[in-house]
Design goal:
Blueprint lengths: L1 E5 L6 E6 L3 H32 L9 H15 L1 H16 L14 E3 L5 E4 L12 H16 L6 E3 L11 E8 L4 E12 L10 E6 L6 E6 L8 E2 L4 E8 L7 E10 L12 E4 L3 E5 L5 H10 L3 E8 L5 E10 L9 E6 L10 E3 L7 E2 L4 E8 L7 E11 L9 E3 L4 E4 L14 H78 L2
Helix pairs in contact: 1-6
Length: 505
């Protein structure tokens, strides 16, 4: 509104002074503030509900929905069972000549007086059943002479030497020299292992490296002494195997450590990456920068091992997130190999050297993954999610576990973590539904609030414009009336002066 101010004398209009009309404008402002506070409170409440919804839920999707989802994902994960079958077939082939007396042991280290690790016990192959502790201890003892030997004298022997070695035995050890040194192995006194073409029955296998896939030096049997063996780096991998028939006296050997030739670059990258826990990621970026620099500087291949170990009696599920080799389908230049606890080629679970990786399930709680790349392929990239799980069997999952509805259980901690830890993604299905529902509610609230606020602003602007127009009309009308009044007054004054002039003599 506008209020007219007049001079006290003459009754003429002097000015139009604008004064805000508080009765209307302040009411609109209070309404806007109230709506803003209400909308903010609604958004905060919806955010709280969304946060609550993202906490682990044990409610599983409906059975009908599960069937539809399982059919949808069956093709992607259908190879998991075939992988398990291939794994068991490979293991059966590797141990076809062994029985339940296959020697097993834990990872015990033999230390020299200098504190360097020089030998490791044999690795335990995956088992299909449970073994009694007494049987395991007996089997460990059978390999002890091969695994431990005589550390003070740096000697090693075939199992139960100088007596006949046992039937059906598999013993593995790794001789490790101090850093900067190499190993020289020499067989003395006796070497007598069952002779057969290609050493099919009993044999001693030696590899130049730390693993069962390292470069093969030789597979030895018969009565001829093997030549003196010198490693290129600080590791020698040895494996002794016997079948279920003829036994012989075996062998004895002595090893010593020598300083390596400093002129040639070392190929010992010592690239071993340890992983554990209920879940985790295996990435090409895990390789330390100094190792990559050494590979480029010395022009040697990149050869790294990831070792994943989860709880006893649990297994490991691998899911590829990304997989891009620099030289796809060139299986000599770059590849990924998956091994169980033993890193021997007959037990290799899977080899990836193409353009895609598929999900893998292992049969033990220990998994090894080897990444090999020549100089031309060291830019290969990959990202893998691993999840620890256990077979539910005929029982049920524990209170701190989540049932994946595929006869497996995972840790309850993995629920609603935005990662698909179950093979068929049930651990994230319910969470996504609730989160999406809360997000839709927030969007609806924001839209309604925007419409209300927009309508209020438009109404306020329209009312203000209408008031301005109306006040301008009132001002103009008052000005017109003032002018007319002034003219009338001037006319009356003129007539009065005329009469006065006429009446004067």
């Amino acid at each position: 509104m506008w209020r007219l101010s007049r001079w006290s004398r003459g009754g003429s209009v002097a000015a139009a002074v604008p004064v805000p009309q508080s009765s209307c404008c302040w009411l609109l402002i209070l309404l806007i503030i109230g709506q803003t506070v209400y909308a903010a409170a609604s958004i905060i409440e919806s955010s709280r509900l969304e946060s609550t919804a993202t906490q682990p839920q044990t409610i599983a999707p409906s059975s009908e929905h599960r069937v539809q989802q399982q059919q949808q994902h069956q093709q992607e994960f259908g190879n998991a069972s075939s992988t398990t079958s291939d794994y068991r077939t490979a293991f059966a082939a590797a141990a076809s000549t062994t029985t339940s007396t296959t020697t097993t042991t834990s990872s015990t280290a033999i230390l020299s007086s200098s504190g360097e690790q020089h030998a490791l016990t044999l690795a335990r192959p995956p088992r299909g059943g449970r073994f009694k502790r007494q049987e395991e201890e007996e089997e460990i003892d059978r390999c002890r002479l091969f695994v431990e030997g005589s550390p003070n004298k740096n000697e090693l022997y075939s199992p139960e030497y100088p007596n006949l070695y046992p039937k059906n035995i598999n013993c593995t050890r790794v001789i490790t020299a101090p850093k900067g040194q190499i190993i020289r192995l020499d067989f003395r006194n006796s070497f007598n292992i069952e002779a057969k073409e290609e050493c099919k029955f009993d044999f001693l296998e030696i590899r130049d490296g730390q693993y069962g896939f390292s470069q093969l030096i030789g597979k030895f049997c018969g009565t001829d002494f093997p030549p003196e063996i010198t490693s290129k780096e600080r590791y020698l991998w040895l494996h002794f195997h016997s079948d279920d028939t003829i036994e012989y006296t075996g062998f004895s050997a002595v090893y010593e450590f020598l300083d390596r030739n400093r002129e040639s670059p070392s190929t010992d990258l010592n690239c071993t990456i340890e992983k554990d826990g209920f879940e985790g990621f295996i990435n090409s970026t895990d390789v330390p920068a100094d190792i990559r620099e050494q590979v480029i500087r010395d022009k040697i291949p990149l050869d790294c091992i990831w070792r994943i170990q989860v709880k006893d009696n649990w297994k490991i599920f691998l899911k590829f997130l990304t997989f891009q080799l620099s030289k796809p389908n060139d299986c000599e230049t770059n590849f990924l190999d998956i091994f169980p606890e033993q890193t021997v080629m007959p037990l290799r679970v899977k080899n990836f050297c193409g353009s895609a990786g598929e999900s893998i399930t292992t049969e033990s709680n220990i998994l090894h993954m080897r990444f090999y790349a020549e100089q031309s392929a060291i830019t290969s990239t990959f990202a893998i999610l691993y999840t620890a799980f256990r077979d539910r069997g005929s029982g049920s999952c524990a209170s701190d576990e989540y049932d994946c509805e595929d006869a497996t259980c995972i840790s309850q901690e993995l629920m609603c973590n935005e990662r698909d830890n179950c093979k068929f993604r049930w651990d994230e299905e319910k969470c996504k539904t609730e989160t999406n529902g809360q997000s839709e509610h927030v969007v609806i609230i924001i839209i309604v609030f925007g419409l209300i606020l927009g309508g209020m602003v438009i109404t306020f602007i329209v009312n203000c414009i209408r008031k301005i127009i109306r006040d301008q009309k009132i001002i103009r009308e008052h000005i017109r009336e003032s002018k007319e009044s002034k003219l009338d007054e001037m006319g009356r004054n003129s007539k009065a002066r005329s009469r006065e002039n006429i009446s004067r003599p």
